[in-house]
Amino acid sequence: EVQLVESGGGLVQAGGSLRLSCAVSGFTFDDYAIGWFRQAPGKEREGVSCISSSDGSANYLDSVKGRFTISSDNAKNTVYLQMNSLKPEDTAVYYCARRAERACPTRGSVTGAPWVYDQWGQGTQVTVSS
Predict the structure, then answer these.
(1) In sequence order, what are the residues at sequence separation of 6 or more whose Cβ sits closer than 8 angstroms to the Cβ of residue 120?
(2) What DSSP state is assigned to residue 65?
(3) What is the mean pLDDT of the segment spanning 89-101?
C-alpha cells in the first residue's frame, strides 16, 4: 500500500522554525519526485517546493526561497521540509505528494499542477503566530 505520512507541524511564533517530515512507503522512493504543497483557509492549494529523485535538484516558491529547504534521506524513505524564519502568512495545512515522474518541473511552476501528483499525505497543520 502506498503511503505518505507527514509530521512535524505545530504552533510556532513568527521567526521560529519547524521541520516537516514526509515518510513514504509502498513504492520505490528513487522513482518519484516529491512535492510539498500548502493550503490556507479560503485559499487554493499552492506548490511550495519539489525535489527530484533523478538528481536531487529542488524548486521553491519565491516567497519561501532562502527560508525553506527541502531534502531527502533515501535510507529512511523520508523527505524533509526545513522551515526557518517562519511568518504568519506561512500558516496552512502542509501536504506532501508523490509526483508521477522522477523530475520536478524545470521551468514555470515550482511543483507542477496538483493533478500531476497521484498520491497524497493527510496533511499537517502549521500555525505561525505574530
Answers:
(1) 4, 95, 96, 97, 98
(2) T
(3) 96
